[in-house]
Design goal:
Elements lengths: L6 H18 L5 H8 L3 H13 L4 E2 L6 E4 L2 E2 L5 E4 L4 E4 L2 H11 L3 E6 L6 E7 L2 E2 L5 E4 L10 H6 L3 E2 L2 H11 L5 E4 H12 L12 H10 L10
Antiparallel strand pairs: 1-2, 2-3, 3-5, 4-5, 4-6, 6-7, 7-8, 9-10, 9-11
Helix pairs in contact: 1-3, 2-3, 4-7
Protein name: Alkylmercury lyase
GO molecular function: alkylmercury lyase activity
Pfam family, one: MerB
């Protein structure tokens, strides 16, 4: 394999990571990925670095260990996603809904309203959100999401009302982004993460990503790369 890591290999590696974390609930090591991909550890390390450079995952600083492979977080967060026999950390509301889309079974999402004190459980039953009277704050336009993606995800939270988002932004001196209904985020999560366990997984182009936003009614400059 040349120094330039092909898109095909990056997609294969990303699928294997998705599948591994979904099945085991933790991240694979380079040696395991080398075995699964029938390549060398060196090739896996180059592939992981390429994926990180292309904003397809996040590695720990000065390391090839996986920190984040959206929708999965490999560290404690405000979101805990649980099925009958599996459980994962989600990076944010969007990612947690994405994990729930992948389970194809009843799933519970545990979090804190507005990241503060009050606990909230979102139940997914028969592939539908039960608690629909909530909103989600998308804090930054999509062309800024990867400026600091850990920070971005930490701020994609669930609120009771849009007024609560306004008060939260005022209290924490943060600019307001856009409010989505949980049903809208659920639809977005299905289109965004629905193919992550497909062996033919391919990373999205900016054009495809923007078309997905449009399909769920998210239009305007905020949703353009």
């Amino acid at each position: 394999m040349s120094t330039r890591i092909s898109d095909e290999y990056q997609n294969q590696l990303r699928y294997l990571i998705n599948r591994y974390i979904f099945d085991t609930c933790y991240a694979p090591q380079c040696e395991e990925l080398a075995t699964l991909s029938n390549t060398s550890v060196e090739e896996v390390e180059l592939g992981l670095k390429a994926l990180a450079d292309n904003h397809a995952l996040v590695l720990h600083p000065n390391s090839v260990s996986i920190w984040v492979a959206h929708p999965f977080a490999l560290f404690p967060t405000l979101f805990w996603v649980k099925t009958k026999d599996k459980q994962w950390w989600g990076n944010c509301a969007w990612c947690s809904f994405g994990i729930a889309q992948l389970t194809n079974e009843d799933t519970d999402i545990f979090t804190k309203l507005d990241g503060h004190i009050e606990s909230l459980t979102i139940h997914v039953r028969d592939n539908k959100i039960v608690e629909t009277d909530y909103v989600v704050h998308m804090p930054l336009p999509v062309n800024k999401l990867w400026d600091n993606v850990i920070y971005t995800c930490a701020n994609i939270l669930i609120f009771k009302t849009e007024n609560d988002i306004d008060q939260w932004c005022k209290h924490h001196n943060k600019p307001k982004g856009v409010a989505l209904s949980v049903e809208q985020l659920w639809s977005l999560s299905k289109l965004w993460y629905g193919n992550y366990l497909d062996p033919n997984f391919k990373r999205k182009s900016k054009q495809l990503a923007e078309s997905i936003f449009t399909q769920v009614g998210l239009i305007g400059d905020f949703w353009k790369f």
